[in-house]
Amino acid sequence: MKFNLPLCLLPCLFLFFTFKLFAQDTTQINLPASNSSIISEKHSSRYFTPAGIVIPGTFLLYGCLKPAITGIQRIDDDILASVKRNYPDFHTKADDYLMWAPSASIYLMDALHVKTTHSFTEHLILDAGSMAIAGGVGFVMRKISKNIEVYNTHNTKFPSGHTTNAFRGAEIFHQELKGINPVLSYSGYLVATTVGVLRIYNKEHVLSEVLAGAGLGILSTKLTYWIFDSVKAKKKKK
After folding, report:
1. CA angle 86, 195, 199 (to 5 degrees)
2. Strands annotated E in the chain
3. At what angle do helices 120-145 and 161-177 cross, to 10 degrees?
4. 41, 60, 181, 196: most buried, per Cβ within 10 A?
5. What are the tens digits of pLDDT across the range 20-60?
6. CB-based contacts of 97, cutoff 8 Å, min separation 6
C-alpha cells in the first residue's frame, strides 16, 4: 500500500509547532484578565503540556497513518460492517445539533452570569478563531485524502467535520471552566464523544475519521488559546 507523505506530514508539523510553542513559552507576564483574574504568558504554556497534547495528537496521527498501516483500515472496515449488520436502519440527526452543544454552553454560561475564564466578547473571538483553524486544517486534510484510495473505500470524508467541531467546542468549555469547576469542565467531552459515536452509527464516518476529527478539534482550540494569550500579552507590553 502506497504511503502518502503529505497527509502524514501535516499533523506532524502541527504537533511540532505546538511543542515548539511549549518550549518557547517560558516568560511570565502578568496581565489583567476578565472576571478580575490574572493570566500570564506562562499560563498559556499549559495548553501545550505533553499530557495535554499526547492524546489528541495520537488520535490525529492514527487517522493520518491509515495509508501506511493496514490494521487501521481493517479495524475501520470491521466496525463499520458490524454497525451495518446490527443496526442497518439506524439513523438520527441528533449529531447535527449535538456538535454545537459544547460551544453553545459557553454562551449559556455567559447568559446566566456564570464565572468563566474569559468574557463574552473573548468567547466570540476564541470560538471563531478555533473554528477557522480547525476548518482550515480540516479542509487541507480532505483535499489531500480525497486523492488517496484508502480514504474513499466507504465513500466517507476524512476527517469527521462533526466530530472536529464537537471536540473543538468541548475543549473551549473545558478551558473556560477547568479552574472553576473541573468536573463540569469535562462534560463537554462526553457530548463530543456521543457525536463521534453517532457519526459511526449513522454510517457517515469510520473510526479513524472520528478519532482524527477529535484530535484536530482539541489541538485547534489549544492553538487558538495560545495565540489569543500571546496577542494579549504583546498589547499589554505596548
Report:
1. 45
2. 30-32, 38-40
3. 150
4. 60
5. 554 444 333 333 444 434 344 444 456 777 778 889 999 99
6. none
